[in-house]
Amino acid sequence: MTQQIIVNSRAIDILAVLMLMTTIVLIGTSRLRTCIWAYACRSFMLTLASGLIAYFSGIHHIYITTGISLALKVIVIPGFLFYIVKKNNIKKEVGSYMNYTLALILACGIILIAYYSTQNIIQFENIFMRHCLPIALSITLLGFFVMIIRKQAIIQIIGLITMEDGMFFAALSTSYGMPLIVELGLFFDILVSVIIMGIYVYRIKESFDGIDTDFLRDIRE
Amino acid sequence: MTAEIILPILQILVVVGFSPLVKGFINKIEARLQCRRGASMFQPYYNLVKLFRKDAVVSETSSWIFRATPYITFISVLIISLLVPVLSSQVPLNFTGDIILIIYLFALARFFLVLTSLDTGSAFGGMGGSREMMVSSMAEPAMILSFFTVALTVNSTNLSNITSTLLNNSILLLNPSLILAFAALTIVLIAETGRIPVDNPFTHLELTMIHEGMMLEFSGRYLALVEWASSMKLLLLLTILVNIFFPWGIAGGLTFSGLIIAFALYVVKIGFFAFLIVIVEMSFAKIRLFRIPNLLGTAFILSILAVISLYVVR
């Protein structure tokens, strides 16, 4: 019985680690399409993890969030991002304010901070799924980091939804998700914000012939 | 007693005998997937036979290092083949070396190859050597740290202990740190064996080659030995990867039936990973030389996270 619990929590831990690896890909790559694929992959892992948590815990409403997150995060949002990239003829290289190796090293530091700062909590609270909380925190911080270091608007959108993924995973792994109505609201928020930012990307492209958010500095006069 | 004699012989036969076949297999599958017919799977053997028959040309300006290097390279890889669990979890040279020795024997072979590339004074050799050193200076820490992750998980650096512990206690394999180490080691394997995202093994275009650049001056039996050693290195790294992270089927003792099953599963596992290498080679273009630090930096960070998460999350 306990053996089974350990295997279950290890399975979710492994999915969490895979999510972390796809987030690192987001920082290490300079290709826009790879970034979107990495996001889609991570969302798929997240969906899988939430499905497993629903199955292991027997809480039924997590199945609903799993279904919605599969439809929204794995299919709709990456599809929409690919659509924006294709429609606006966005160039394939993502500009960065920071050299990639340095960014990777800082990302490593961020992950270590997340691991050390959650250590005290994990030791008392949840004996199982011990990698989940630090990884959820580090995905949140890494999303923020991506938003800071990258120039293009699309990748900043990905950074934002990465942060949301981290929050979602933290809630899921520590307290089996938030109440259903809250999560439905969150999904709706994410969808709306991605669409609004898609329009925003289109406007920047129209006005400045490129989607680096640097151009927005020219506006203040 | 006989078993202790048979095992090392068997192991050397498998590694030395099958390593050209693995290379031929990878080339063949890759050719088929690119809608070419490709050379026969046994082509590397024909190459080796032909090269051994030919005379070696040695530059007048080269020193004894040039002549010693092929043997040093070959023999150090040969020693590694006795340090790695291939068919049985018992390792022939168990009493004298562990996972750290393997890393340093690989480094020794590489060090002499680089020395030779400088020795003959050819410009391409020196360039290949310096590039090889650049790649290895970033790949080696990642390799060491991911080996340490494995060693820390089972509290032993001895490969024989590692494999048998992981075999008997498979739940240890579900450790998320090991997944990180596995990912790091896979990237390192591709970089160390000079496969496509890092180096193109088929190119003889001067500006892009890394590993081939160092071997330009070799000919005849020297070239044969160095090529053979490099294909053995590929097979050995694959073996380490396969037998640490997927140890199922490896023989615990030294019974005849156990070894047969182990050999069958070993062929299947190596074939599968060789196929994965082909898929990677097919789906990526060779990256620019100055992008290599990105890739290897990722491997290094994954391995650091593997070690640290092992310590933090006890």
Would you write up a description of this structure?
The complex is a heterodimer of chains A (221) and B (314). Chain A has one domain (2-219). In chain A, 79% of the residues lie in helices and 0% in strands. Chain A has helices at 2-28, 32-57, 61-87, 100-124, 132-149, 153-175, 180-208. Chain A is globular, with a radius of gyration of 18 Å. With 314 residues, chain B is mainly α. In chain B, helix 3 (64-83) runs parallel beside helix 9 (220-245). Chain B is globular. The A-B interface holds A 3, 6-7, 10-11, 13-14, 16-18, 20-21, 24-25, 28-29, 100-101, 104-105, 107-108, 111-112, 115-116, 119, 122, 130-131, 134 and B 171, 174-176, 179-180, 183, 293-295, 297-298, 301-302, 304-305, 308-309, 312-313.
Biggest interchain interface, per-side counts = A-B, 31 and 20 residues
Q: What does the overall shape of chain A look like?
A: globular
Give, in order, the helices and strands of chain A. Answer: HHHHHHH
User: What is the number of helical segments of chain B per DSSP (H or I, 4+ residues)?
Assistant: 11
The N- to C-terminal Cα distance of chain B equals: 42 Å
Q: End-to-end span of chain A in angstroms?
A: 68 Å
Radius of gyration over C-alpha positions of chain A, nearest whole angstrom: 18 Å
> What's the total count of β strands of chain B?
0
Oligomeric state of the chains in view: heterodimer
SSE series of chain B = HHHHHHHHHHH
Q: How would you characterize the largest beta sheet of chain A?
A: none
* Helix fraction bin of chain A: over 70%
Contiguous helical run count of chain A: 7
Low-confidence stretches of chain B: none
Rg on CA atoms of chain B, Å: 19 Å
Output mean pLDDT of chain B.
89
**How does the major sheet of chain B shape up?**
none
